[in-house]
Write a structure and sequence with these properties.
Blueprint lengths: L15 E5 L4 H12 L3 E6 L3 H4 L14 E4 L5 H8 L4 E4 L6 H4 L3 H21 L4 E7 L8 E2 L5 E2 L6 H5 L14 E2 L13 H20 L3 E6 L1 E3 L12 H10 L5 E2 L6 E2 L1 E3 H13 L7 E4 L5 E2 H11 L8 E2 L16 H7 L7 H12 L8 H10 L5
Parallel strand pairs: 1-2, 1-4, 2-3, 4-5, 5-9, 9-14, 10-13, 11-16
Antiparallel strand pairs: 6-7, 6-8, 12-15
Length: about 375
Amino acid sequence: MSPRNGNAGAGLASGSVLITGGAGFVGSHLADELLEHGYRVRVLDNLDAQVHGDAIARPAYLNPEVELLRGDVRDRAAVNRALRGVEAVFHFAAAVGVGQSMYEIERYTDVNNRGTAVLLEALSAAPVQRLIVASSMSVYGEGRCRAPDGTLVDPPERSPERLRMGDFELRDADSQPLTPIPTPEEKPSVPTSVYALSKLDQERLCLMIGHAYGVPAVALRFFNIYGTRQALSNPYTGVLAIFASRYLNQRAPMIFEDGLQRRDFVNVRDVARACRLALQTDDIGGSVINVGSGRSISILGVAAAMAQALAIEDQPPQVTRKVRVGDIRHCFADIALAAELLGYVPQVSLTDGLSELVDWMLGQRAFDRVDAAAEELAKRGLRL
């Protein structure tokens, strides 16, 4: 699927918007952003216990102006109710987690793939002015690299044999190390987990059906999002929330491999703004767009930044040198297309974003379930 694919369409400057999965971390911030800019917001969310806890109640952080419908995106009747009178849809509803997806295969495929199919079938009967789907950097597999001779390389998946020997880095055919560089949208997708495959399926379904039915659709490939309202007790959520949960429970963060793998951490407020711009911008239907910070940092580096933000000095990370099946080594965003098409420029630095996150999470209760999740992966042979 190319980054542009027809049915470009005009942006939506006002009106009623549906966010599936909108009671969660990213969706709730997007709701705030849209309300602030004069939109009406409806949310369809099943309030999944893994994200929201066992108390099935409207999240306290969800803006009171948001109309919340509790329902599942796989339920056609619930989807039809949610779509009544809306002019645009953000499709965020998904099961999230690379490691968990490798053993809860049916659930991830059912929620992410079938849920998207149910939504799209409903939209085929009642088209909207714009559809924006939350995709993921995980669809790339390994990020783009440069070989020692300067040529660009899209690395294959690392072999289990090399990983078991503790050789984590990406190498060329002559075993020379490759240098990671920002990954653009044109890089071919090579998903390495059930979650990644389902996100690729979501974005391609949305672009395909949008093109067929005249609904301008946009896929936003989110990189590693962090910020307030993350589910601190969910061991399959973003790595910064997992680190925060460990620190809040006086435990050292657990880091896979050697901690030198590089990622792009983007603040949720920047992501929400990028989403609004994707709604308002003319002539971008059919686009696939990276949304990141445009900066990379190692996992060890981000753990150190979190410890500094929390003023923790005596809990160095536990570097396990273990590997989760489905993980990739390096991937960080080339955001030139987002700047060109959306005028998107990240505004929240990692230092400021972590300070805001720490201020929020010190008032939260976090249950550390990381060890149990790691044991589950090991029991199933998914941790090398």
